[in-house]
Amino acid sequence: MISLSKGLEKGSRMRMTEIIRDVSPHSIPGVLTGPNLAREIVAGQAAASVLALEAHDAALALQPTLNNGLFRVYTNQDVIGCELGGVLKNIIAIAVGMGDGLGAGDNTRAALITRGLAEMSRLGEALGGKAETFAGLAGMGDMIATCTSPQSRNRHVGMELAKGRSIEDIIDSMHMVAEGVKSAPTVIELAREKGISLPISEDVYSVITGESNARGVYRGLLRVMAGAESEPG
After folding, report:
1. What is the set of domains in the chain, with CATH numbers?
2. Residue 89 is among the residues annotated as catalytic for this protein
3. What secondary structure letter does DSSP report for 231?
4. Hey, is 215 helix, strand or coil?
5. Burial 194-211 (b: 16+ CB within 10 A, else e)
6. Model confidence pLDDT, tens digit, residues 111-144
7. Mean predicted lDDT score pLDDT of the chain
8. Residue 52: strand pairing partners
9. Which residues contact 117 (CB under 8 A, 6 or more apart)?
10. Nearest-5° angle of CA 76, CA 80, CA 86?
11. Which is the catalytic residue, given 89, 130, 163, 194?
12. Rounded CA gap, 99 and 101, in Å?
């Protein structure tokens, strides 16, 4: 049973494959993920995705079926990392959207994406994912698409937050789900439990909850003293 969802269940904090295993113990759960904007897939444009199953033989058996024309599917055994990449990139996309909405430039966007990848890797590895997964399609690849595309719902949320709109107003006006909004509280809970610093994600969370606003967070980021690139911040 293959999940196409990118989120965590509220309350249980379970990944989608964990939910599948819980409700269907005899199934082989997996995830298909990556930079796969639906409109482009439907239009038949070239794209690549990752199929992750713990049962690698099952992934190899299913791979030829999912490979279709210009849709290329790679396999990966890191189910945890592939799922977490799809969760965490949505929160960073909200941050990028806020920057774009405030008129930030390409340098700012690149910095947010790169430092966002570092946050993804820190928490993802702490939760059992592999570093190389976050450097691949399920991590960096998906993040680039979600953070830069006009089709991105999470980026759209960030841009609207930059206008001063409340998260409730934005969500009510959307006809689709922006998973980053729902996932942010759970991600922050997990990071705090693990003692993992996620400055960008924390700022997004503070704006979503109304504790701060996009402009204030953006100015705060500019004042933060930078340390080594390998360090948080």
Report:
1. 2-79 (3.40.50.720), 84-223 (1.10.1040.10)
2. yes
3. S
4. helix
5. eebebbbbbbbbbbbeee
6. 999 999 999 999 999 999 999 999 999 999 999 9
7. 93
8. 31, 76
9. 92, 134, 135, 139, 140, 143
10. 85
11. 89
12. 5
pLDDT-derived band of residue 90, with 50, 70 and 90 as boundaries? very high
For 5, list phi and psi in degrees, rounded to 5: -90, 150
Residues 53 and 83 sit within 8 Å (Cβ to Cβ): no
Give 226's pLDDT tier (boundaries 50, 70, 90): low
Q: Percentages helix, strand, coil for the chain, rounded to the nearest 5?
A: 60, 10, 30
Closest CA to 71 of 49, 93, 86: 49
- pTM of this structure: 0.93
Q: Which residues contact 115 (CB under 8 A, 6 or more apart)?
A: 199, 200, 233
DSSP β-bridge partners for residue 33 = 50
Query: pLDDT for 17-40, tens place per residue?
Result: 999 999 999 999 999 999 999 999
pLDDT value of residue 233: 64
Percentage of the chain beyond pLDDT 70 is 95
Could you tell me the end-to-end alpha-carbon distance of the chain, in angstroms, rounded to an integer? Answer: 38
- Within a 10 A sphere around the Cβ of 14, how many other Cβ atoms? 15
